[in-house]
Write a structure and sequence with these properties.
Largest sheet: 5 strands, parallel
Structural class: alpha/beta
CATH topology of the largest domain: Rossmann fold
Order of helices and strands: EHEHEEEHEHEHEEHHHHH
CATH class of the largest domain: Alpha Beta
Oligomer: single chain
Number of strands: 9
Number of domains: 2
Pfam families: Response_reg (PF00072)
Keywords: Phosphoprotein
Number of helices: 10
Strand order of the largest sheet: 2-1-3-6-7
Protein name: Response regulatory domain-containing protein
GO biological process, one term: phosphorelay signal transduction system
CATH architecture of the largest domain: 3-Layer(aba) Sandwich
Domain Response regulatory: 3-121
Shape: elongated
Distance between the termini: 40 Å
Helix content: 40-55%
Strand content: 5-15%
Radius of gyration: 20 Å
Length: 252
Amino acid sequence: MQRVLVVDPSTAAVRLLGDQLRHVGNVQVFSAPTIEQGWGMVRTVDPQMIFVEHSSAGVDGLALAKKIRRSDLACRQAPIIMCTAEATAEAIFGARDAGIHEFMRKPFTIKDLERRLEAVTLKPRDWVEAVQYVGPDRRRFNSAEYKGPRKRKADAAGTPAARLSQALRIVKSAAQSLDSDPAQARRALAAQAAELRAVGEAVKEPRLIEAANALSAMTQVEVTGAMARAELVKRIDVLMGFMTDEGNGRAA
């Protein structure tokens, strides 16, 4: 970690966090007081980690996080840690749903910071590339404080059936968003095509591999015109044939 961006209107808060980060490691700290300037620095600095204020004068951390996650920037998957003095349930769940990696209440200690840094660097979470949500797996949000088991039954085993079911649900949602959110729908389809190919290889299902490859190839080209869109939908429909009525994949 060499480049860190801090988006916070408070000069004192930026200075304190910068001092703590330098104590942890040799990093270059960039700062911005507003969401507009923060977005500009995200595009030019290519930060490896981002700290954002939840909500303050000139800063809407949730909006900035969502914009980064849904962009084509190289840093779109960089860890984002939200800092705020208002650690309400609404703020915490809002951060989770915006694609934030960790949540940290102000004032925080160097130990609090170290725990969040450890969580995002040493305990990475799976990346979810959907349409309604883009970011790290929300089921283990704020993992620096997480102590219990993963909450969904399918998580424990990580079965091909569970992976297949989730990927197909995202593909279905992306197909429904081809007109309303074409850029993110295309990113989601490309990511799930790769996941479905991996599942097909794991269960040795050539038909699934072939269908996933066909979808992947279609996401690599510009889909314009009725014929191209119809072909994309056709390839999606082939994959939907692997989903059961209950939403559970056939690969077991």
